[in-house]
Amino acid sequence: MQVSLIGTGLMGTAMAERLLTLGHDVVVYNRTQDKCAALQQRGALGAGSAVEAIEASKCTILMLADAPAIREALFASGKPDFQNRTMIQMGTIAPSESIALGQEIRMGIGDYFEAPVLGSIAEAKAGRLLVMVGGKAEHVERWHEVLKCFCEKPLLVGEIGQAAALKLALNQLIAAHITAFSLSLGLVQRSGVEVETFMNVLRQSALMAPMFEKKLPRLLAHDYARPNFSTRHLLKDVELCLNASRDANVATPVLAAIRGILEETIGKGLQDVDYSSLFETVVPEKL
User: How many CB atoms sit inside 10 A of residue 8's CB?
Assistant: First the structure.
């Protein structure tokens, strides 16, 4: 099957590599076209524009940073011919943004559904992402061959907008967990408690999360290079979750405080490294 993919950042590249590995023909486009070079060396076809990429295939995956980036790619240089084509939005955007995008594509006689993913680069390359679908059962059935490249079994959450909301609910846990773990780690370190003592107790408790084990080496080494998910992208998702939560009349003071920590971290120049770099803000260097 030929599939187009727009947005070859960290996750988009990993997903395109997965499609190529499984024998699909892949057409790729990115606003910064240098980011497509490695994929083209592996056999992907490069498109000169998003319009060209969309019109090359019956199915196009959108893996862009946010809704403005999607709109710029899709509509800034002419509206694509969406007729008899399906757009699968797999990035993280707001529920309202996904609903509006779907309406606009359907007005062009195209089809649209959302399928945001949970997981990182390693899971994308291995086909072990969690794929959450907002749309109809027929979307999952028709495009099962594409979706199964990334996960064993896509989960149909509900209508368009609901999978987007679920993704935001999960991503705010990423922000909350790393912030809380950073605070706890900083406290035990500065209290003279051995880190391994702290971790041994934590591992035996109901409080343990796999993220803590995964991120601990980064925090201890203050090494945030080679990110799977950057600080600036986590801040974007926290902002989206804040807005969606307020629309749903859910209290947000804790998440608003985490947003402030992320903003301060970005102010230190750590926007493009791993999001665990917020440890530098939660546990600043002693004066």
Answer: 29
Per the structure, how many domains does the chain have? 2
Q: Are residues 233 and 275 in the same domain?
A: yes
Give the single-character DSSP code of 274. Answer: B
pLDDT score at 37: 95
| 120 shares its domain with 21 | yes
What gap in Å lies between CA 252 and CA 256, rounded to an integer? Answer: 6
Q: Are residues 124 and 176 in the same domain?
A: no
Rounded to two decimals, the pTM is 0.94
Give the tens place of pLDDT for each residue, 110-155: 999 999 999 999 999 999 999 999 999 999 999 999 999 999 999 9
Measure the CA–CA gap between 164 and 131, rounded to whole angstroms. Answer: 11
CA distance 87 to 102: 9
The CATH number covering residue 38 comes to 3.40.50.720
